[in-house]
């Protein structure tokens, strides 16, 4: 640098100003005083959506759409349980900030407002030496050498943003249709049908789905719940509580503008209801069989693990440990041996072994009290129904029994398994590439732990009773009939039967295949040498989120955080007092960024 010239201001570009971008900004503000002092720094936030809520939690979406988490289970702030090198900066949970009952499931608009407030608080915590610049635009590409300045190109702007490093907090991403979806779209166009590909339901144009007409819906998770809400209450229907011989029940009063939703999926059942009680007494001590030591051993093995061979056996033993610890300590009358005896033999038995199965069978007399992950994963695999009406009755019974169980503390091992699932996901985040190309684990976790509030499933039952939701069953497949010009759906639950419709909705998020990502920026990263896993995720260092190249080297100036990376987590937000892996990663990324900037010549 020439003598007498002022030092160039260092700059960070954060692409994505939603929850994860806000989390990074909060950790940046917390660590600047220690690691960067009063040196000048520019932070550029790039997002076409409002800073804080971003796209998913924007405050202009339907007020009928709820969060999938209780207000008391959502925080954007660190606490003493979070293991970080930076300072802990406590803050209110969503429930505390909004003055809500912690057990309620608030609307997404309320969460968006909380996120906006948290974003403004993070910005206010930055010292005067840090200047924030907002750009309501879409980032298209990141260019620049590993050892030089990075250039972030934005739509509608000729000159790129120049930065010393880039943090990608892109959130959930769109995807271009795959070959099958393109084929379905062409079929729909030829015959004047309606085809809605995988998308975020709140963003989809549902106006083309006609009242009173059958609609095939493939997908029974959270995207379906949103679809159900928007096409029923969103079209003027309402629910009433009526008294009956078996107590109160929910009844749907239609507006007459609703379509008839024929819904199916691979499992054929909705995600399990959220659990409606808290554990009393001590929680299972976790982790026990899948903790840091086991992850260290997996990391020491060359190449990514094979999830089913190397990881799943350890996970099943961990889930079983939580389940049986709770069963033996809280419900000992349903066990046949003393806990200390069972615990010793359980610890010694190999996972997924006949020895372990025999131990459980002898110690837990009722099969309903045993943990069977395979049966949980595919509850309808061996079930066949004689008629469509028998299928409707069978699925209504399944949903009602699930609701009752998930709100009955007599089944508290279910909640212990939920805690174990969260513990497992926190450990898996350290592995990066799980060796799970079909994303099976994430789907299994979501099915058990990320289901809707119980009230949504009660609404589903009311809609089924009203004839506005019809169940298709498990193993649902959709074909096209060129002669009749309709979509046709069938399932393994009802062999030989077909349902026809002139509309098809894919109620699920787009698959993360690298070649189909809707993010031009991410496609460009892959073209430039960033590594994508077989599961379609951007490979990152699980510690601080540095982007990994196909050669395995971390990029010194590029970080990526969020659900499109190999360090993704099971839930959208962190529960208070659970250690918060996302907070740890945000803190490590912020500290690594500041140390890097401080070490640059002239800093």
From TrEMBL:
Residues 13-172 form the FAD-dependent urate hydroxylase HpyO/Asp monooxygenase CreE-like FAD/NAD(P)-binding domain. SUPFAM superfamilies: FAD/NAD(P)-binding domain. It holds the Pfam family NAD_binding_9. This is FAD/NAD(P)-binding protein. It comes from Streptomyces roseoviridis.
């Amino acid at each position: 640098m020439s003598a007498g010239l002022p030092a160039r201001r260092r700059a960070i570009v954060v692409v994505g100003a939603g929850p994860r971008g806000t989390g990074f900004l909060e950790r940046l503000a917390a660590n600047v005083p220690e690691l960067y002092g009063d040196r000048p720094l520019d932070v550029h936030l790039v997002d076409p959506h409002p800073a804080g809520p971003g796209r998913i939690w924007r405050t202009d979406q339907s007020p009928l759409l709820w969060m999938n988490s209780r207000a008391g289970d959502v925080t954007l702030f660190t606490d003493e349980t979070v293991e970080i090198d930076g300072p802990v900066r406590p803050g209110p949970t969503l429930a505390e900030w909004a003055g809500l009952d912690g057990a309620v499931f608030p609307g997404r608009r309320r969460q968006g407002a909380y996120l906006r407030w948290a974003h403004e608080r993070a910005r206010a915590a930055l010292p005067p030496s840090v200047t924030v610049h907002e750009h309501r635009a879409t980032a298209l590409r990141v260019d620049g050498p590993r050892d030089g300045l990075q250039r972030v190109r934005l739509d509608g702007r000729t000159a790129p943003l120049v930065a010393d490093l880039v943090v990608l907090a892109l959130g959930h991403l769109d995807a271009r249709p795959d070959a099958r979806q393109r084929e379905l779209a062409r079929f729909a166009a030829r015959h004047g049908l309606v085809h809605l590909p995988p998308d975020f339901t709140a963003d989809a144009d549902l106006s083309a789905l006609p009242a009173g007409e059958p609609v095939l819906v493939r997908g029974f998770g959270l995207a379906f719940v949103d679809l159900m809400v928007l096409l029923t209450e969103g079209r003027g229907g309402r629910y009433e509580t009526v008294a009956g011989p078996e107590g109160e029940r929910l009844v749907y009063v239609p507006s007459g503008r609703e379509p008839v939703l024929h819904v199916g999926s691979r499992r054929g059942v909705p995600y399990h209801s959220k659990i409606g009680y808290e554990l009393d007494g001590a929680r299972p001590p976790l982790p026990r069989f899948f903790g840091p030591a086991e992850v260290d051993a997996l990391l020491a093995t060359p190449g990514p693990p094979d999830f089913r061979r190397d990881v799943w056996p350890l996970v099943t033993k961990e889930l079983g440990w939580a389940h049986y610890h709770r069963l033996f300590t809280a419900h000992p009358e349903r066990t046949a041996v003393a806990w200390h005896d069972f615990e010793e033999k359980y610890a010694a038995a190999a996972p997924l072994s006949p020895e372990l199965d025999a131990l459980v069978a002898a110690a837990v007399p009722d099969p309903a009290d045993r943990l069977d992950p395979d049966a949980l994963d595919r509850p309808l695999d061996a079930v066949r129904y004689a008629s469509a009406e028998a299928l409707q009755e069978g699925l209504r019974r399944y949903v009602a029994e699930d609701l009752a169980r998930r709100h009955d503390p007599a089944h508290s091992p279910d909640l212990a398994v939920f805690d174990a699932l969260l513990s497992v996901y926190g450990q898996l985040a350290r592995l990066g590439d799980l060796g799970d190309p079909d994303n099976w684990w994430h789907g299994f976790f979501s099915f058990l732990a990320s289901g809707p509030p119980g009230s949504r499933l009660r609404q589903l039952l009311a809609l089924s009773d009203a004839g506005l939701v019809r169940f298709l069953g498990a193993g649902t497949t959709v074909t096209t009939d060129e002669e009749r010009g309709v979509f046709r759906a069938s399932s393994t639950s009802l062999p030989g039967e077909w349902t026809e419709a002139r509309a098809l909705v894919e109620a699920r998020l787009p698959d993360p295949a690298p070649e189909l990502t809707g993010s031009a920026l991410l496609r460009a990263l892959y073209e430039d040498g960033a590594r994508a896993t077989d599961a379609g995720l951007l490979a990152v260092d699980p510690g601080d989120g540095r982007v990994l190249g196909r050669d395995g080297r971390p990029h010194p100036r590029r970080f990526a955080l969020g659900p499109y990376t190999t360090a993704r987590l099971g839930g959208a937000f962190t529960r208070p007092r659970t250690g918060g892996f996302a907070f740890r990663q945000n803190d490590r990324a912020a500290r690594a960024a500041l140390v890097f900037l401080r070490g640059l010549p002239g800093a």
